[in-house]
Write a structure and sequence with these properties.
The complex is a heterodimer. Chain A is mainly α. Chain A contains four helices and no strands. The chains are: A mainly alpha, B alpha+beta.
């Protein structure tokens, strides 16, 4: 079944009894599981931009030569 | 990626980029592409990127106009040759292009072989995402 990010509450309901994840992790994994590949990548890019690690900054921050 | 295909250069998305677009919530600072070329032919892939407006900042790393880092990889630790893995790739629509993506079990195999601290963290994220995937079926 193809889902998008907006469908994450449904995924959350299916995984909410998983013992290996805490609540915040369940929400995070539910969002990623529901999202399309483009939405997943956008979440990655948005996060890295928010911490100033996107693009060349990422290479510098993570010590790549 | 469409430009690589137009040049008939086979590739697949690998590493945490591939894991991320398959639902693993790990961060990665660039796109790793496994290119079906010999390492000495790295300029063929790089020329395609440069023709698209990218800037070459290392022998195998280019930064695209939107600041996306692209890392061209020619062999992957822990995995057999490109030709023996491409048949197992998942086809996903990403950025408007249908691309071959290394499946999670092979990403995990490679990360186990590399074994850096960050790979062990990624392995755990992959394992958890696979468990979520099973519950979500």
């Amino acid at each position: 079944m193809k889902t998008t990010l907006k469908d994450w509450p449904g995924v959350y309901r299916r995984i909410r009894r998983m013992r290996s994840l805490d609540e915040a992790e369940k929400i995070l994994f539910a969002r990623y599981a529901a999202a399309t590949p483009d939405e997943r990548w956008q979440m990655n890019v948005s996060y890295l931009r928010s911490v100033g690690s996107w693009g060349r900054c990422g290479l510098k921050k993570f010590g790549s030569r | 990626m469409g430009a690589l295909r137009a040049e008939k250069i086979r590739f697949q998305v690998i590493g945490m980029t591939a894991a991320n677009i398959q639902g693993v919530p790990g961060s990665t600072i660039g796109v790793d592409l496994w290119i079906d070329l010999a390492p000495r032919d790295y300029m063929r892939a790089m020329n395609v990127a440069v023709q698209q407006g990218a800037e070459m900042i290392r022998n195998t790393v280019a930064v695209l106009e939107d600041q996306t880092l692209v890392n061209f990889v020619f062999e992957v630790t822990g995995l057999p040759a490109f030709g023996r893995t491409i048949g197992k790739a998942k086809k996903l629509r990403w950025g408007g292009v249908l691309v071959d993506v290394l499946p999670l079990d092979l990403i995990a195999k490679s990360k186990r072989a590399v074994g850096r601290p960050k790979d062990l963290l990624h392995l755990e994220l992959i394992r958890q995402a696979q468990a979520v995937g099973r519950k979500n079926k």
